[in-house]
Design a protein that fits this description.
Layout: E1 7-11, E2 17-22, E3 27-31, E4 35-38, E5 42-48, H1 57-70, E6 76-82, E7 88-93, E8 98-104, E9 111-114, E10 119-123, E11 127-132, H2 136-141, E12 147-152, E13 156-162, E14 165-178, E15 182-185, E16 189-195, H3 199-204, E17 210-223, H4 227-245
Antiparallel strand pairs: 1-2, 2-7, 3-6, 3-10, 4-7, 5-6, 8-13, 9-12, 9-15, 10-13, 11-12, 14-17, 15-17, 16-17
Amino acid sequence: MKCDEVDYEIIGNDIQVVEVELDPGETVIAEAGAMNYMESAITFETKMGDGSEATSGLFGKLFSAGKRLMTGESLFLTHFTNQGEGKRRVAFSAPFPGKIIPLDLMQLGGEVLCQKDAFLAAALGTHISIAFTKRLGAGFFGGEGFILQKLSGDGMVFTHACGAVVEKKLNNETIRMDTGALVAFTPGLDYSIELSGGLKSMFFGGEGLFLTTLRGTGTVWMQSLPFSRLAERINRAQLASQGEDN
């Protein structure tokens, strides 16, 4: 199924909104609750599945929803369609401060892998499925799980990151990062979660027991502030404040 050709504009700097322009009859799909605002003549419907040809039919929709459930996401996606005669716009925003990363799947070989909570919205026709890491044991204990989202198609996809976005192009190279820093990468890269080093560094270095490692040739997008790290600091500050009050 060919993806709808949607136009878009990213608005803002640190807390961004992506405004998608739809021609009559065009549809964009998004995570439940991601919509920020929309113009008249745009209708929306919550559906099970991404609406791609690969997940048509009841069985396909149930199978697709089950795979999304494995990633911890909602069973449903919201479909926004322009039912008017002229161009109309609908906007989406991330659930935390950061950047929105527009990805043209046609220019990226038709596929991108991303962390399970990175997907925000996409043109109708995009197939959203899952991919497993090769090393399930390390993935399970690495903190971010061993299941990734796989976005396939030939249209625009929008992912979101916490903090600033760093894009790196690797040419038969290796990069290692905090397990929460990864946002997305092209399938030409080999993904694994490995031990960070010796026991002393692992327990006292403050970098955690595991690091995400990418090897090969391709593009990787990283976030400067993993949301898990931000949440941990907020929780730590809250506990300290409660201790002082007591």
